[in-house]
Each structure stands twice: as structure tokens, then as C-alpha cells.
Amino acid sequence: MLSIKPLHFLLVVLVILIWGFNFAMVKIGLLDLPPLLLTSLRFLGVAVILVPFVKPPKGRFKDIIVISLVLGVAHFALMFNGLRGLDASTAAISIQLQVPFASLLAAVFLKDKLGWRRALGMAIAFAGVVIIAGEPRLDGQYGYLFMVISAACLWAVANLIMKLQKPMDGMTILAWISVFAAPALFLLSLVFEQGQMQAIREISWNGISALFYQSVLVVVIGYGIWYRLLQLYPLNIMMPFTLLLPPVGVLSGVLVLGESLTLTFLIGAAVTIVGVAIILIRRPTTAQPEIKGT
To answer: Are 181 and 68 in contact (CB under 8 A)?
Structure first.
């Protein structure tokens, strides 16, 4: 069995910590900026940083535009709007439904054999989120929860689209979907949100830090390391590490935002992670994170 070098293991842990704590950082950013505007500025930062260093995807702009609309615009708009009303812990667990959604789409459109074990994993993962949804603290927040679950579904759709297309460099995808997603999201912000200029003028250092975190740490550093490691190790080595994301996301809510945990939530979270683990162990390529959701 191929093992991972100690330095590379530490790098993987660093990436998981960066991605996991982003749930809390998005919540911090939403204190200063409305969701669509925050998402737009996030992608603007990524585009400014990455585009000068990647080649234009010649002949692939149509593919990029489709991905940017599904993933960059629809997924992130729903995810950030959902996070506005949900605590980071609930969002960190609920978004993991992207894995069973991806598995289901792969079975339907890629003829990937589902099998009883992965079907069981899907059922367990959804059951875990249902347990969490039954908590009293989610009363009146089901619309936000639905947004996050819809965002998970759209991530799976975008993942499927990328798998149906010819392979493309990961950083190129990230850079150029940002080019198209940023202005589209800004236009949506102008239509559905108010006070954009005032919010930008009055943004605090916490808000600026949240934007920097999402653009530089999550995307440039996080994905830069992740894609490099994927060139060195097979998916069956790398994918199990992503199971650490939900507990780290929950931890970010507790440590950074002071969120409380209940026994019901912990049971639901554990059930969801077990279901996701079954799917990843059975078919690591099914839910390979071409681009992470948050």
C-alpha cells in the first residue's frame, strides 16, 4: 500500500484546516457584505491573482462559461445565502450531501454501478442531515438549509459536467470561472441586494480578512497544494482525508463563532460522515472534488 510522506501529510492537513475553517470565515465576511456581493468579490480576487499565471483555455471557453454558471454563480450564490441564516456547523455537515448527489448522478449519467453499499451510504448520509434538521434550533431556518442542500446538488452537477468534458488543468478552471462568475454575481447583487457601495466603503478589517482568506488561502494556496499532491498520490490515498473537512468545519464554528453543539447534532453529523465515508471508500472517483464547494 502506498504511504504518504510526512511533509505531504502535513500539507494535506494544512489544506483541510484551511478549507474547513472557511465556513467560519464566510460567516465573518457576511457580517460586512451581502452574500452575492461577497461571492463576487471572492471570485474577483481569485481572477486577479490567478489569470496572469495560467494560459487561456483556447477552444474551451464554452465549457468554462457553463461551469461558471452552475458552480461559480448558482452553487456559491445558494451556499453563501444559506450560510447567512445557518450556523457554520450545520452548513459544514449539510454540504457533504454533495458526495451522495455526485454518486447518484454518476450512476445515472456515467453508468457507474451504484451497488448496495453505496446506496446504503447515500441513505445514511441523508438520514444524518434529517436528524440535524429535526433540532429545535433549526426551526424557521429550513429555507436556508434547503439552499445549502441545493448548493450541494449543484456542486454534484458541476462535478458531472467536468467529468463529461475533456480534462482541463484545475488552476485554469479556477481562474477562468472566476473571470465569468465575478461580474455575473455582481449583476445579481445589483438586482437582488442593496447598499453595495456603502458596504464596500465601510468594510471592516474582519471583512477584508475574510475575503483574503477565501481568495488567497482557500483557492490559491489550498488548491495549489491539493492539485500538486493529486499528481503525486492516487485518489484512494487522498480522498479519505476529505472526510476530515466536516469535523473541521464544525470546529471552526465552535472555536471562531462560539457555536454550541448538542447531542442530536453530533449524532446527525456522525451519521452523515459515516454515509459519506462508505461512498468514498467504495468509489473514490465518483465524488472526486474537482473544485470544493466552499
So the answer is: yes
